[in-house]
TrEMBL record:
<feature type="binding site">
    <location>
        <position position="238"/>
    </location>
    <ligand>
        <name>[4Fe-4S] cluster 2</name>
    </ligand>
</feature>
<comment type="subunit">
    <text>Monomer.</text>
</comment>
<feature type="binding site">
    <location>
        <position position="166"/>
    </location>
    <ligand>
        <name>cob(II)alamin</name>
    </ligand>
</feature>
<feature type="binding site">
    <location>
        <position position="211"/>
    </location>
    <ligand>
        <name>[4Fe-4S] cluster 2</name>
    </ligand>
</feature>
<dbReference type="InterPro" id="IPR013542">
    <property type="entry name" value="QueG_DUF1730"/>
</dbReference>
<keyword id="KW-0411">Iron-sulfur</keyword>
<protein>
    <recommendedName>
        <fullName>Epoxyqueuosine reductase</fullName>
        <ecNumber>1.17.99.6</ecNumber>
    </recommendedName>
</protein>
<dbReference type="InterPro" id="IPR017900">
    <property type="entry name" value="4Fe4S_Fe_S_CS"/>
</dbReference>
<comment type="pathway">
    <text>tRNA modification; tRNA-queuosine biosynthesis.</text>
</comment>
<feature type="binding site">
    <location>
        <position position="220"/>
    </location>
    <ligand>
        <name>tRNA</name>
    </ligand>
</feature>
<keyword id="KW-0671">Queuosine biosynthesis</keyword>
<feature type="binding site">
    <location>
        <position position="155"/>
    </location>
    <ligand>
        <name>cob(II)alamin</name>
    </ligand>
</feature>
<keyword id="KW-0963">Cytoplasm</keyword>
<keyword id="KW-0170">Cobalt</keyword>
<keyword id="KW-0846">Cobalamin</keyword>
<keyword id="KW-0560">Oxidoreductase</keyword>
<feature type="binding site">
    <location>
        <position position="213"/>
    </location>
    <ligand>
        <name>cob(II)alamin</name>
    </ligand>
</feature>
Amino acid sequence: MSNRKKYSEMIKAEAKRLGFLSCGISKAEFLEEEAPRLENFLQNNMHGEMQWLENHFDKRLDPTKLVEGSKSVISVLLNYYPQEFQKENTYKISKYAYGQDYHFVIKDKLKQLLHFMQDEIGQIEGRAFVDSAPVLDKAWAAKSGLGWIGKHSNLLSKQTGSFYFIAELIVDLELDYDTPVTDHCGSCTACIDACPTDAIVEPYKVDGSKCISYFTIELKDELPNSYKDKFDDWMFGCDVCQDVCPWNRFSKPHNEPLFNPHPQLLENEKKDWEEITKDTFNEIFRKSAVKRTKFEGLKRNMKFLES
C-alpha cells in the first residue's frame, strides 16, 4: 500500500473517531466548474447584501491561494439532526442553531485531526476552515465524494440526507483522492415546490436574496413587506427545503452533546417568544449561532411574523 493511501485511511479513521459522519479527500486545485456559477450568482445579485461574498473571488476557487503549498482538501461532515424538536405551533429556529455554535465545536475537532496527522505522519502545514473563510464548502465536499449538490443547492447523501455541517482541512500533504458520486435527485421537485419564497429559481440555483435564512439572519434592514405571510413562522433560518427532501427520511439524531438545545428552546410557545427579555435571550442562546441576529434582530423577525 502506498503512503498516500495509508495516510488517507488513517485520517479517515481518526475523523470517524472524532465523531465526524464522513470524510473525503480531493486534490487542492482550481474549481473550474464553479467559477462561472459563482460569477453568475454575483452578477445577478443573488447574494443580496452579503457583500463579503464578492471578496476574495480567486481564493474561493483556488485553495492554493488560501494555503500556500497546499496539496489536499480534506472535507468532513458533522451531523446536527436533533433528537427532539420545537413544538408544532411556535416561532421556528433552524435545526442547525439548536445547540452551541458549530464553528467552535467543529474547529476544535479539526485541530485535533491536524495534530493527529502531525504526530502520526510528520511535519504538515495546514489550516482548518469552518464556514468562516472564502472556501466553497459544498463544492469541495461533492468533489471528494461525500454527496451531490441537490436541487436546493445543499449537499445530499443517500445515507444521511443533508442535516450536517461541512468543514475542511487544507494541507500541504499529497493524499489518495476520492471521486464524486452521481446525482440522485431524479425528477423530484419537492424542495422547489415547497420553498415559501420561491428562492429556488430553477433546479440547482438558489437566489440567496430571496431565502428566508437570508432575511432572518443576514439582512440588517427592515424586512420587505412584499414577503409578508411567506415566512411560515421562521424567526431564525429556514429548513423547509431540507424537511421536504425524501433523502432526509434517512437522517438520524446526532450524538454531539454540545448540539443539544436549551430546554426552553423546545418548550417555548409563541407567547413565550414574544415576551422574551434580553436576559432570557442571552441565557437560551448563550453559545448559539442565533446570537448572530442579536436580540433586536430576533424581535424584529417576530414582529414581522406577528403583524
